[in-house]
UniProtKB/TrEMBL annotation, chain A:
Pfam families tied to this protein: SBP_bac_8 (PF13416)
Cross-referenced PANTHER family: ARABINOSE-BINDING PROTEIN-RELATED, DIACETYLCHITOBIOSE BINDING PROTEIN DASA
Annotated coiled-coil segments of the chain: none
Organism encoding this protein: Phytoactinopolyspora halotolerans
Superkingdom assignment: Bacteria
Entry-linked Gene3D superfamilies: Periplasmic binding protein-like II
Protein name in the entry: Carbohydrate ABC transporter substrate-binding protein
UniProtKB/TrEMBL annotation, chain C:
Keyword Repeat among record annotations: no
Pfam hit, one: BPD_transp_1
Localisation: Cell membrane
Native source organism of the sequence: Phytoactinopolyspora halotolerans
Protein name, UniProt field: Sugar ABC transporter permease
Comp. bias regions, Low complexity: 13-48
Length: 433, 298, 343
């Protein structure tokens, strides 16, 4: 008896209790949809209170247009969302539509939690090109849908640049080397004692940009690591140069890796991050104007190194066809409706739908326009495919943060920390096999 | 109150008061109070800071962390109160339902179990006591998923049953253990006498043990209130619709780990949610005194 | 009635090093009310005693009915489930697969496991005595004989109310962070501080401070315990001419030992399982570089972040065994210092 399904497992571990379960469950639980009648769909997402309000309003818009479909919302803050999600998945009591945290995409896929979206008529994909759809697929199947998009960026404080009389390297000279030189110079010589940037050596998609430029990638198509210790060490070295020169804040100065923007924002000129963060983070310092640049490149970067990161949502596999059609029409509204987009705003990044991207310019704020433009410029670039983190690597970002801490706190050398990080992530992948 | 009076009366009776003695005692009291105040302010400084910060505009909380605000506003309270499209009172009421239910459940079930484990003699007692202790020892995180599966099979997700029913079944082993320890400090002569007088175990429990374990009952009430009021994980997992949320789950939605933009509101609403707990504590701890006043001076 | 009997249990009874029982069962066999009193009563006989025992057994199960139901329905299933899962590979999303002892073998070569063991052990052995000492001291000060006791108690309890709130992460940074209060104070003396939270050699200490700061719960239990000490024992001691100090060492402390013991046991268990505060303050990572990686935090990371619920269950049962051993040692040692009123 090496494997057993959940039900037998429960029965063997608590036969008595389950007897009572059967008795009691007779008076509990309704299963939502009656065939032909009104359908109820559960929609689960994460964020802060503002996003909760916006999505609730937007989903009400949908219900006004589709009176036969009721949406039950399930919302929580990001960490709490994942805790609840894990528990629900263990009990197979999963919301019909749910957002997927980036590191879990392939873990869920491997465990068959996604329903295929192909053949669901209610899902309108007419705005997307065939190439877009190819990029959205996981293992050749369209079973998740992007509902946002962002790219790695360098965000800089335009007000500080002007006050201090500095100018960033031009687009043609926008290399890692030049940026580092510039930041060290700025840090040492600016008249207001401002610093270069926070220490963000563990920022995932900036690192991914670095790898792709060096002809490597984060993950391969067959679910392996796509980079070696050398490329990783090169990345850490770039950050170490800035840190030891004082241009990057130390872990102590910024109170930890992954600093709070509210605490460091006033002290630094630039920050590495994801393009969508400008929307919330610029508002913390209303006296400054923030601008975006794409991540710097190396002079002879590999072809197709540009990429777009898509946050995804999915429809749960364990629901019947009628329910799935209703869920698909919610998803369709979510990714295609300009009213929906207007209501929820752009905190999940630029809309992946190219038509919506254009329409969004009309109502976007200055910060949002900045974000849309940088994403659009990357959309137009040549892009080779990118793959999601395979099962067993869902904690790879914290492993990387720990490696970056080890280095920045001078507790281990770059080569040593890089190899340890790769070994730990590899062990996670092997564990899953 | 009664004890304080009794005690000072006793002291006065035993030692004839002299004026220098009174002065010395007053001076001592002043020092004691001054010392306590200094110490207390050091202890609650973080809370004072939090209180002040909740009146600052949200974006200044972290960027201008001083105690004297450059700008004062009530917007954290007004915005925070309506944070999830509904008045915050909804979450207060929900928390109150869960909390009061839990208190009743724990008092009822744990005192019964504790009496049996502390005073009655029967074969399986050692085993039961070991199980009680063992269930305090196992980290809850590995129990969460099997327990959730169980309650979800019952169809109890998004109801208060998974939060309340276990309390009526003495699953908070902590309190069983607490009460066992308290009952064991009660001199056995007391219930022995009752037993001799012909009262059975139930009457003895009701008339002798229960009144005498009042401090333990008050302690249980206080802790159940506070822990249930502050509990985050259980309501998070079982209560999925916002209308059912308890206060801590609602508070967590103000946490934005990227920008800390909701921090002013978080502070303001955390402060408000402290008020009922604080009031309850101040009210309930009086009974820690009265418990002895009635039993000791009867 | 109560008063009459109280005088029977005089002050000498309480302070004499009676043979304190290690657990309720031993106490019961020596001090069962029915069994003993039956000797003094003419009505009692050998068969009556048996009858009483049987009656007690039945009564006990009536008293224990909710508990038995709770154990059967709510506690036992997760308990045995987690025991079974400890021997499986269970990723939460699909069915568990039996793998024998491999989870336990894995621990032996898991560096982070050993890091977590070390962090937790240091935390337990340092912060539990500190917190209990602190709580007892304040409970004694706030016990009686002071104006405004309710106010003081409330004020000193405040930190504990907030101890597990999400707001604590920010508060602690305002104190121990790079620009926090501690460093402001050091700057007065011309010392340039660093972030105490982000230095791997001081981060754990800040969490110990946090634990001591939230001393309210053991303090309340101590206060309740002090209230439980019969007033007439003090009276009797005063009549015997015992000084305040002698009353403290011969009445208060001996009669408080069951409560001290209870607090010691539960704070030890609680510290072995310390999770929430480390989770909040390190943002769930146990950082910097695993210096605050508490055992339960690691267990949680394995179960909920890495989806190794089988391994997490194995970790949980190892922790439980460790706690059981320490608790057993405490119970054994308690024979020498805990005095029960029921002997």
């Amino acid at each position: 008896m090496s494997t057993m399904d959940r039900r037998t497992f429960l029965k063997t571990t608590g036969a008595g209790a389950l007897g009572a379960t059967a008795l009691l469950s007779a008076c509990g639980s309704d299963d939502g949809s009656a065939p032909g009648g009104p359908t109820s769909v559960r929609y689960a997402w994460w964020g802060n209170n503002i996003r909760q309000q916006n999505y609730t309003t937007a989903l009400e818009l949908f219900q006004e247009e589709h009176p036969d479909i009721t949406i039950e919302t399930e919302f929580a803050e990001y960490t709490a969302f994942q805790e609840r999600m894990t528990t629900q998945m263990a009990a197979r009591d999963v919301p019909d539509i749910f957002w997927i945290a980036s590191a879990q995409v392939m873990t869920y896929e491997k465990n068959g939690l996604y329903r295929s979206l192909e053949g669901l008529d209610a899902l309108d994909l007419s705005d997307f090109s065939d190439q877009d759809i190819e990029f959205f697929k996981l293992n050749g199947e369209l079973n998740t849908m992007p509902h946002g998009s962002f790219v790695p960026v360098v965000r800089y404080n335009q007000t500080y640049l002007e006050e201090d009389g500095y100018e960033l390297p031009g687009d043609a000279d926008w290399t890692w080397e030049n940026l580092a030189d510039f930041l060290i110079d700025y840090n040492d010589n600016n008249p207001n004692g401002r610093r270069g940037l926070p220490y963000d050596a563990d920022h995932d998609i900036s690192f991914e940009a670095w790898l792709r430029q060096h002809g490597q990638q984060l993950w391969t198509e067959d679910g392996e690591m796509g980079f070696d210790a050398e490329a990783l060490a090169g990345w850490f070295e770039w950050w170490e140069r800035l840190r030891t020169a004082g241009a990057a804040l130390s872990i102590s100065e910024q109170d930890g890796i992954g600093p709070d923007w509210a605490e460091v924002g006033e002290r630094v000129l630039v920050k590495f991050g994801s393009s969508n963060h400008i929307i919330d983070e610029a508002q913390v310092f209303p006296d400054s104007t923030f601008k975006l640049r794409p991540a710097p490149a190396i002079p002879d970067a590999a072809a197709g190194h540009k990429f777009i990161y898509y946050p995804r949502l999915a429809v749960y596999q364990g629901i019947d066809d009628a329910q799935a059609q209703a869920a698909a029409s919610v998803v369709s509204f979510n990714i295609n409706s300009v009213d929906f987009l207007k209501t929820v705003g752009l905190t999940m990044g630029a809309p992946p739908n190219p038509r919506l991207l254009q329409e969004a310019y009309e109502f976007a704020s200055d910060d949002e326009q900045e974000m849309l433009a940088v994403v659009e410029s990357e959309t137009d670039a040549e892009r080779s495919p990118r793959y999601e983190a395979p099962a067993g690597t869902s904690t790879w970002r914290t492993v990387m943060s720990r490696a970056a801490e080890e280095i920045a706190l001078e507790r281990s050398g770059i080569a040593e920390a890089s190899e340890a990080m790769i070994a730990e992530i590899q062990a996670g992948i092997d564990q899953e096999k | 109150m009664a004890t304080m009076l009794a005690e000072s009366r006793a002291r006065r009776a035993s030692r004839p008061p002299s004026s220098s003695h009174v002065v010395r005692r007053r001076r001592n009291a002043v020092f004691k109070h001054a010392g306590l105040w200094v110490f207390m302010i050091a202890m609650i400084y973080p809370l004072i800071w939090m209180g002040v910060s909740s009146f600052k505009p949200g974006n200044l909380v972290l960027s201008e962390p001083g105690l004297i605000p450059s700008e004062v506003t009530l917007e954290n309270f007004t915005e925070g109160w309506n944070v999830l499209n509904r008045p915050f009172s909804v979450f207060f009421v929900n928390s109150l339902i869960v909390t009061v239910g839990s208190i009743v459940g724990n008092l009822f079930s744990c005192s019964l179990a504790a009496y049996a484990l502390a005073r009655l003699q029967f074969k399986a007692r050692k085993v039961y006591f070991a199980i009680t202790l063992a269930s305090v020892m196992l980290p809850m995180h590995v129990l969460v998923i099997p327990q959730y599966i169980f309650f979800s099979e019952l169809g109890w997700v998004n109801t208060y049953f998974p939060l309340l029913i276990p309390k009526f079944l003495a699953t908070d082993a902590f309190f069983v253990f607490l009460m066992v320890q308290f009952i064991r400090t009660i001199p056995r002569d007391l219930d022995r006498a009752a037993w001799i007088d012909g009262a059975g175990p139930f009457l003895t429990f009701w008339h002798v043990i229960l009144p005498l374990m009042r401090p333990a009952l008050v302690t249980t009430t206080i802790f159940t209130f506070i822990w249930t009021w502050n509990d985050f994980f259980t309501p998070l997992i079982y209560l999925t619709s916002v209308d059912m949320y308890t206060v801590p789950v609602a508070l967590s939605s103000m946490v934005d780990s990227e920008t800390q933009s909701g921090i002013g509101m978080l502070f303001a609403m955390s402060l408000l949610s402290l008020i009922p707990v604080m009031l309850f504590f101040v009210f309930a701890q009086r009974y820690l005194i009265r418990g002895i006043a009635t039993t000791g001076l009867k | 009635m109560a008063r009459r009997i109280r005088h029977g249990a005089g002050v000498r009874d309480a302070s004499a090093p009676a043979s304190a029982a290690s657990d309720p069962d031993d106490a019961a066999s020596s001090g069962n009310p029915t069994a003993e009193s039956s000797g003094t009563r003419a009505a009692a006989s050998g068969s009556g005693r048996k009858f009483h025992l049987r009656r007690q057994g039945r009564a006990a199960h009536v008293f224990l009915l909710p508990w038995l139901l709770g154990f059967g329905l709510v506690t036992s299933v997760p308990l045995f489930a987690s025991l079974y899962l400890a021997f499986t590979d269970y990723n939460v999303l699909s069915s568990p697969r039996f793998t024998g002892l491999s989870n336990f073998e894995r621990m032996l070569s898991d560096d982070r496991f050993w890091a977590a063991v070390s962090v937790t052990a240091r935390y337990v052995f340092i912060s539990v005595p500190l917190q209990l000492g602190f709580a007892l001291l304040l409970a004694l000060i706030l016990d009686r004989g002071l104006r405004g006791l309710a106010f003081y108690r409330g004020a000193f309890y405040l930190p504990s109310l907030l101890g597990s709130s999400v707001a604590v992460a920010i508060l602690w940074r305002e104190i121990f962070g790079h620009d926090g209060l501690v460093n402001d104070a050091l700057a007065w003396f011309g010392i340039e501080g660093q972030s105490w939270l982000q230095n791997p050699s001081t981060a754990l200490s800040t969490l110990m401070v946090l634990n001591v700061w939230t001393f309210g719960s053991p303090m309340v239990i101590f206060l309740a315990g002090l209230r439980q000490i019969p007033e007439d024992l003090y009276e009797a001691a005063r009549v015997d001419g015992a000084s305040k100090i002698r009353q403290f060492t011969h009445v208060t402390i001996p009669l408080l030992t069951p409560i001290i013991f209870f607090n010691l046991i539960l704070q030890t268990i609680g510290s072995f399982q310390a999770f929430t505060q480390a989770h909040i303050i390190s943002g769930g990572t146990g950082g910097p570089v695993d210096s605050t990686l508490f055992y339960t935090l690691y267990l949680y990371q394995q179960g909920f972040n890495s989806f190794n619920m089988g391994y997490a269950s194995a970790l949980a049962w190892v922790l439980m065994l460790a706690i059981a051993v320490v608790t057993a040692i405490h119970f054994f040692l308690s024979k020498y210092w805990v005095f029960y009123g029921d002997d």
